[in-house]
Amino acid sequence: MVLCWIALPVFAVLAIFSARYRRLTVESLECLFRTATLQKCQSGLDDRMKSQITGKLLRFSPASARFFYKHYKIISFVLLIVFIWSTYISAVAIYNYIEYGNCNGPDSDGFCILDPMGENSATCEIPNSVGGNGKIVYPKPDPNTPVIGNRDAELTIIEFGCYVCPYTNDAEETVKAVLDYYKGRVNLQFIVYPLPAHEFSYESSMASKCAEEQGKYEEYHEKLFEQNLVFTSQTFMNVALELELDVGQFESCMENQTYASDIEKDKALAVAAGVKGTPTFFVNEQEIIGPKPFKTFKTVIDGELGKLG
Amino acid sequence: MFGFNVEKVRKDFPVLSQRLVYFDNACMSLKPKQVVEKMNEYYEKYPACGGRSGHRLSREVDYQVELARREVQKLIGAGSQEEIIFVRNATEGINLVAHGLDWEKGDEVIVTDKEHNSNLIPWLKLKEEGVVVRVCKGNEDGTFNLKNLRDCLSKKTKLVAVVHVSNLDGVENPIADIVKTAHANGVWVLVDGAQSVPHKEVDVRKLDVDFFAFSGHKALGPTGTGVLYGKKDLLNKMCQFIVGGQTVLDSTYEGYDEELLPKKFEAGLQDYAGIIGLGEACRYLKRIGLKEIEKQEEKLNKLATSLLSGNEKIELIGPREAEKRSGVFTFNVKGMRSHDVAKMLDASKGIAVRSGAFCVHSWFNAHKIDGAVRASFYLYNTEDEVRVFVKEVEKICELV
Question: Does any CB of chain B come closer than 8 Å to the CB of residue A42?
């Protein structure tokens, strides 16, 4: 009886690939139903499996066959407990993956079988990021920083990103979808963190600020993502021309690195917040690391909006 | 003429090329490719009706069916082809006799205590017509007890229905003596030859049996084929069992004229491919030689018995001497269910054996045994296979 419980999901999965297991799946299901309704399982599946497994073991190791045959009931119960435990763990992992984009929960970037490459948690690493004095200072929306979306929104997502970081680029589509979904209620402040190892990272950060100077921040920000990580020394001027900026002013801003101190302030904000890579998002004190799926953002934002009442 | 060569024989059975030790021959034999090819020949070359239409294909079917009937006649030594009735299996043949004979209330049928359900239930069913079924007990070791038969016989006995070779333990009953005793009392004898025809020479005329039934599927033939032999005068006296197409010479709205033998009992369109395949199986058995087959089986059974009989965890069913058990080795492993043993043998080395009550529930119930494991050998089995079987059984014995 015990093995039937384990056999059902195992055979059900195998039945997807092989017709041979479909009959066994039906038998396990029938057995499970009968035992659940306090009737005797009539298929003899348990006995058959016991004999079958013992027979297979006999081929390789009579001693292990003997052990299995004699301790079959104990082994079955152990397997059942392991099965229930692993089912529970799997269910939690699936829940975490759906809710937070990682099997291990919201604050972990450990290995996840559902995201084996860790793409949902990947970031462009910030070198020597130590998190200020060890105490995290959560970033707050700054009225002097431009926003994407409704300036008067109830909630602000603060994103530490870099225009040439592939993971920031990956997250952009989700960010747009989130802003669209919460249109009017949620806005975004994009805080640049130029990565020293990435070519054109600093230039792109500076360019966005030079565009802001001319009131075209949001458009320029979007155009930088539209480059899809392909940048040349001409890109920034070309975008400025395309957006009909005052090219002379823009060129001068870039050459003089007018906003270098602002960029340094942004970087300091990131360090203070303990940001270890881009993109990293903050919704109040909730942190989202990497290009997480839409559902993860939704869970966090709904929670924070709920707190607002 | 050239001696029996088991390796050569095995080449005729393609299924043996897989990981398989087939020891379930008392249930179903494997089929040589010659039989399969002969059956395909029907479907590919002359797949028509027999005994009805007059065209070329139909005539070929008639010819092939009659050839098959002749092969069966030769195999069991029947006097004429009219005495060979094609049926679906031995069970149907026995039922045909049970329903075809004219029974009166109080008539008695004697069976042995080791009958297959096929040679027990048809007679038990006759109880509804007032027929009495007497069970003639055998000896302790499973051999036949002629004295008990004499004691069972009475003036009301009409038929002795007896198995030739038991599918339970392989014991061969002394048919000639049984027939002599029965006939001396004016009693007919029906023999269930399902386990004898495939494995040893049978001559129904020498045995002087009145009825003899066997199945094709245990004799290298196709499933759904069988034969009832009956003495011509008895068959002529018997009522028809299943009637319809081919069983009549003519019919009106009021009645019909019965066909002659053997078609009188072969109702409806027949399994021509099967019958033709059965004919080929008989030809194959005769070509190999039933004496050689019997010797091979006994040799294998002696080997299995000598290697396992000393094992105290093995409970043998039937006589201890292998030569009394034909090619059948039936046993139990103490403390283990027969089905479990069979499944383990299959899972470990692909050894196919029968487990359970082998349709001899009555014997198992009387002896309060749940069931047993049966290894039954045939012409394509080898000594190496027996050794593999023995080794695995020994390993299983160690489990308990």
Answer: no
Q: Do A47 and B345 touch (CB under 8 A)?
A: no
Q: Is A56 on the interface with B (CB under 8 A)?
A: yes
| B345 interfacial to chain A (CB closer than 8 Å) | yes
Q: Pick from B230, B257, B287: which residue ends a domain?
A: B287
Instruction: Tell me how far apart the alpha carbons of residues B173 and B149 are, in angstroms, rounded to a whole number.
Output: 12
CB contact under 8 A, B395 and A62: yes
Q: Is the pLDDT of residue A75 over 80?
A: yes
CATH code of the domain in which B147 resides: 3.40.640.10
Domain A124-308 = CATH 3.40.30.10 = yes
Stated as kind and residue range, the H or E segment containing A278 is strand A277-278
Residue B84 belongs to domain spanning: 35-287
User: Token match 């002097």: residue?
Assistant: A144
**Lowest-confidence segment of A123-137, A167-181, B115-129, B382-396 by average pLDDT:** A123-137
Domain boundaries, chain A: 2-100, 124-308
Does residue B1 lie in a domain region?
no
Count of other CB atoms within 10 angstroms of residue A193? 26
Q: Does B136 touch chain A (CB under 8 A)?
A: no
Q: How far off is chain A from B308, nearest CA to CA, in Å?
A: 18
DSSP character at residue B317: E
Locate A49 and state its tokens: 């499996």
| A54 closest CB neighbour out of B339, B342, B399 | B399
Query: Of B263, B287, B311, which residue sits at a domain end?
Result: B287
Q: Determine which of A42, A51, A64 to mutate to test the interface with B (most B C-beta atoms within 10 Å).
A: A51
State how far the Cα of A80 lies from the Cα of A46, in Å rounded to an integer. 13
A55·B343 Cβ contact <8 A: yes
Which residue is it, tokens 């104990």?
A: A74
How far off is chain B from A6, nearest CA to CA, in Å?
20
- Which residues of chain B lie closer than 8 angstroms to A54, CB-CB? 340, 344, 347, 399
Phi, psi angles (nearest 5°) of residue A83? -65, -45
CB-based contact A51 B396, cutoff 8 Å: no
Q: Show which residues of B are catalytic.
A: 359
Do B274 and B370 belong together in one domain? no
User: Which helix (DSSP H) or strand (DSSP E) does residue B390 occupy?
Assistant: helix B383-397
Cα four-point dihedral sign B367, B371, B373, B375: positive
Residue B215 three-state SS: strand
Q: How many folded domains does chain B comprise?
A: 2
Note whether ipTM > 0.90 here: no
Q: What is chain B's pLDDT, residue by residue, as a tens digit (400 residues)?
A: 457 999 999 999 999 999 999 999 999 999 999 999 999 999 999 999 998 899 999 999 999 999 999 999 999 999 999 999 999 999 999 999 999 999 999 999 999 999 999 999 999 999 999 999 999 999 999 999 999 999 999 999 999 999 999 999 999 999 999 999 999 999 999 999 999 999 999 999 999 999 999 999 999 999 999 999 999 999 999 999 999 999 999 999 999 999 999 999 999 999 999 999 999 999 999 999 999 999 999 999 999 999 999 999 999 999 999 999 999 999 999 999 999 999 999 999 999 999 999 999 999 999 999 999 999 999 999 999 999 999 999 999 999 8
Q: What is the CATH number of the domain that holds B300?
A: 3.90.1150.10
My answer on whether B73 and B208 are in the same domain is yes
